[in-house]
């Protein structure tokens, strides 16, 4: 630990020990040896205000982890901690067992994040076994832990007894089709899950079909992230059938980066004409073009539920954007539309800016970065929507760094140096909510 880190660390310990009203401690990327973690835990013991502890990528050792877990499992502590983040620490199987044991008696944690902790199948299952009798955990993140079908089976069996877990992320594991089918069984059981993130698991069309069928039995699941799973048009067809019947409770589905073509989008768009629940649809990073976009545009003219539509990084050209612009003249429901990374130019861009400015009153967020528009064309777009539209945020290569639109006479908000906190990600959209960077 460097001098600056050491000074900040010591000041934070003194603050905690004084039972200050500090609600979170974030030590991500610090270098913490076991003795540092022990000192931290000692300072936490008498503090009743601490809610969130983040120890991501701190090189957490076995003894340090044991200190944290002894704090979590000790019923004599003032158990105020509700969120624990241990991402990017090599905890492995032994770490999973230690955490699992602590969860058996802990009654305060509601969110645990253990992404990229080298848990493997056995370590991940050990964590979930700790939740069999746990009645406080609501969100569990186990992304990037090399979990395969075998691990999914153990996780499913353990969580079948849990009644409080609402969110589960298995982002970027090794589930494949067989593992996807296992998770489908968990979804079908209606265990209380409200959202599931499965992005980057290559579950394929067969896994997607199993999950789609499970949705018919679970109307409580409202959010599903399936980006980067190679579901293709065949997998999308299965979801389209469920969505068309309005027979599931989904309000948000992420299907980005799944090799979906114009044909797949046509099926999905047709289904969305009859759906009254879905508010967010993520299709970024696929391979459809103007034809597929035109089908979506037709859908938008009759759909009354969709608020957010992600179409970034596809192959949508001028004709698709013109169709979308015409749809916005009719649709008065959509509030977020992301179009970054599509090959449309100035002419269709002008049409879009005019429709957004003169015929649409609901759109608040629009992203047009990295298209084929010229600098002059994009600057003209920016000027038009700034003067006349109801937009609040425009993703543009030539606007403010924080992407906010400021009307004449309005007070300037503080401009940030990054757009990381903006409500979009123009890379391949694995998922959209609850956190598009993780699931």
Layout of strands and helices, then pairs:
Layout: H1 3-17, E1 24-26, H2 34-44, E2 52-54, H3 62-73, E3 83-85, H4 92-105, E4 111-113, H5 120-129, E5 139-141, H6 149-159, E6 167-169, H7 176-188, E7 195-197, H8 204-215, E8 223-225, H9 232-245, E9 252-254, H10 262-272, E10 280-282, H11 290-300, E11 308-310, H12 318-330, E12 336-338, H13 346-358, E13 365-367, H14 375-388, E14 393-395
Helix pairs in contact: 1-2, 2-3, 3-4, 4-5, 5-6, 6-7, 7-8, 8-9, 9-10, 10-11, 11-12, 12-13, 13-14
What does this structure look like?
This protein is an alpha/beta fold and 439 residues long. It is 40% helix and 10% strand. The chain contains 14 helices and 14 strands. Strands 1-2-3-4-5-6-7-8-9-10-11-12-13-14 form a 14-stranded parallel beta sheet, with no helix packed on it. Helix 8 (204-215) links the parallel strand 7 and strand 8 (223-225). Helix 1 (3-17) packs parallel to helix 2 (34-44), helix 4 (92-105) packs parallel to helix 5 (120-129) and helix 8 (204-215) packs parallel to helix 9. The longest helix has 15 residues, at 3-17. It starts with a helix and ends in a 44-residue tail after the last strand.
Question: Can you summarize this structure?
Answer:
The protein contains 14 helices and 14 strands.
Considering the chains and any ligands shown, give keywords for the structure.
14-stranded parallel β-sheet, 439 residues, alpha/beta
